[in-house]
Design goal:
- The chain is mostly beta strands.
- The chain has one domain: Trypsin-like serine proteases (Thrombin, subunit H, Beta Barrel).
- It is built from 1 helix and 13 strands.
- The longest helix is centred in the last third of the chain and has 5 residues.
- 47% of the residues are buried.
Length: 234
């Protein structure tokens, strides 16, 4: 069973470390001021006013987002009073994305860019636009997100070591000691390419058990497949 990683949370604390990541200001949260208060997704800043995320963070997934507006939260904890919030003025879903529909090449084009009016005032991250090398399989990296498998921890940014398990035509499959879970959707899978930490994927789905708990691995939409779409936003 697969589940969009920004779905409604469960109450398990199995994967919660309690650590809050303060070292990645370029990884921000997506929330909705007029939507479900439990909704959280993750995004990464790729230009002063542009973020990269998953399309299902804005449409589809496990929430009915009809009529919702969205905000980007800059800071390590969406619940902290000190966070800065930036209204999303526009978001673009990949034109081939349709919630629940898979393209002929096996991808559901689950990728999006979103825009704000004012500079986010954090460094922009680099996304990979080149075909992924075969040597990437087995390589260590990390992922960052605001997700958790429990109510208390969801909404706090965390960074976890990860390992690339496989590269498929549509996604990168990864595993970690703390599997990406509800709220980690849209967040980056980062590895070092050419001596620079680079986004190679955007949080897409997580394997879950019958109880809805995130289990063994997750998939990330490959940025190289959609580099023209992402680059057109810059």
């Amino acid at each position: 069973m697969v589940l969009g990683a920004c779905s409604a949370e469960t109450t398990s604390t199995d994967d919660a470390t309690g650590a809050v990541d303060t070292a990645d200001p370029s990884i921000v949260a997506i929330v909705s001021p007029n939507g479900d208060p439990t909704f959280v997704c993750t995004a990464e800043v790729i230009a002063p006013r542009v973020v990269l995320s998953a399309a299902h963070c804005f449409r589809g997934g496990n929430y009915d987002k009809t009529g919702w507006t969205f905000e980007l939260v800059v800071g390590p904890d969406v619940h902290a009073a000190s966070t800065q919030r930036f209204p999303v003025t526009l978001f673009r879903l990949h034109p081939d994305y349709e919630a629940g529909v898979v393209r002929a090449d096996g991808s559901d084009a689950d990728i999006a860019v979103a825009f704000v009016r004012d500079d986010l005032a954090v460094p922009a991250l680099t996304f990979n636009a080149s075909p992924l090398p075969a040597s990437l399989v087995g390589q260590s990296g990390r992922y960052v997100g605001f997700g958790a498998d429990d109510v208390a921890t969801k909404g706090k940014r965390h960074s976890e070591p990860a390992r690339v398990q496989a590269t498929r035509p549509d996604v990168v499959e990864m595993t970690s000691s703390r599997i990406p879970c509800h709220g980690d959707s849209g967040g980056p899978l980062l590895v070092t390419l050419g001596g620079r930490e680079t986004i190679i994927g955007v949080g897409h789905t997580t394997l879950v058990d019958d109880g809805g708990h995130c289990t063994t691995s997750a998939t990330y939409t490959r940025t190289d497949l959609f580099a023209d779409f992402v680059g057109s936003a810059l």
